[in-house]
Amino acid sequence: MRIALSALLAFWVCASQALEINDDRARFNYQMFCSGCHAPDGAGSGDVPRMKDHVGHFLTTDAGRSYLVRVPGSATSALRDEELAEVLNWILIGMGGDSVAEDFKPYSAAEVSTLRAAPLNEVEEYRAGLLQDIAQQQTEQATTP
Amino acid sequence: MKLIDKMFERKARQLAQRSSRRSMLKGLGGFLVGASALPLLPVARDASAGPTTPLEQGDEASCDYWRYCAIDGFLCSCCGGTANSCPPGTEMSPITWIGTCRNPADGRNYVISYNDCCGKSGCGACLCQRDEGDRPHYRSDKTNDVNWCLGTTSSTYHCSSAIVVGLAFEDK
Q1: Per-10-residue mean pLDDT for chain A, 145 residues long?
Q2: Of A29, A31, A45, the CB nearest to B95
Q3: Distances in Å between the alpha carbon of A12 and those of A7, A17, A19, A103?
Q4: Active site residue B116
């Protein structure tokens, strides 16, 4: 029992160190730089995309993973690389619901730094194409025995 | 008196026969945990719920009211609404300008969402322009000098609310 608890604690410490999410700071940055359009719970509104229970689908392809950083709201925000990585991971964990795999790879500041150097311009069309690719990939995986 | 003594003795013996030390410890432990949690609960809930209702002072129908530190428009408080709600016949914009203001009542900074109320022509009462934290147009998410009636049925601006979203994060 004691060994199991120690292992659990060690796992939790490692996981939290890897993610390095300061919940208060991430929530504040979400409120300041994201929620004005995406709504406090990530539900979006009108033309603003919904992140709640959906955002994790983008992680299933490399282009989708890059998109979450290259989209102008992320790439050109006033957040530093580490803050952007933190708030993206916070969104994925807190709002992604079942769309996020349990073993998803969190963003690092270095990855964010590289990706945001190439922000997207024509977002809507690009996003529609991405979602089409993701849906096709999921259909293929579902039909593969 | 003897009768009472005997009764207590009998009850104590019955208790001792029916229960073990472990069950006594379990019961006592449960009681202590429960007792320690009880007085904490309202406080803990209050803390986790966030400071959506911070200490208040000032007149929300005045431009000087603390939540209006970045406002640019008519106060809904003067137009049939409040700092938190739109006047009847208008629709609150789901897309908002967000900034922070310092609350003089407790000295803390709060995140404020300036949700515009839309669907009727400009209210015309209590025009305020404080603009703290306002940024130029090239920072479109942080400029208050545009019409924020976005995502509403009508884009006609009527007045502005100022809703407390939560506490601002400050590095200690």
Answers
A1: 52 53 96 95 93 97 97 95 98 97 96 97 93 92 80
A2: A45
A3: 9, 8, 11, 14
A4: yes
Question: What residue of A is the nearest CA neighbor of B172?
Answer: A25
DSSP A25-61: HHHHHHHHHTHHHH-TTS--BTTBPP-TTTGGGGGGS
Q: What ipTM goes with this model?
A: 0.80
Taking every pair of Cα atoms in chain A, the longest distance, rounded to a whole number of angstroms, is 55
Interface of A with B in 47-106 (CB under 8 A): 47-48, 73, 78
Pick the residue from chain A with its C-alpha nearest to B114.
A36
Q: Which residues on chain B are in Cβ contact (under 8 Å) with A38?
A: none
Measured CA to CA, the distance from residue A92 to residue A104 in angstroms comes to 9
Chain B: nearest CA to A80, how far in angstroms? 15
Instruction: Tell me the DSSP string of A72-119.
Output: HHHHTSS--HHHHHHHHHHHHHHH-GGGS-TTPPPP-HHHHHHHTTS-
DSSP string computed for chain B: -HHHHHHHHHHHHHHHHH--HHHHHHHHHHHHHHHHHHHHHHHHHHHHH-SSS----S-TTSTTSGGGTT-EEEBGGGTTS-SSSPPTT-EE-SS-EEEEEEETTTTEEEEEEE-EEESSS---SSEEE--TT---TTSGGG--SS----SSS---EEEE--EEEEEPP---
Q: Is B66 a catalytic residue?
A: no
Cα separation of B34 and B106, whole Å? Answer: 32
pLDDT tens-digit series, residues B34-69: 444 444 433 333 333 444 578 888 999 999 999 999
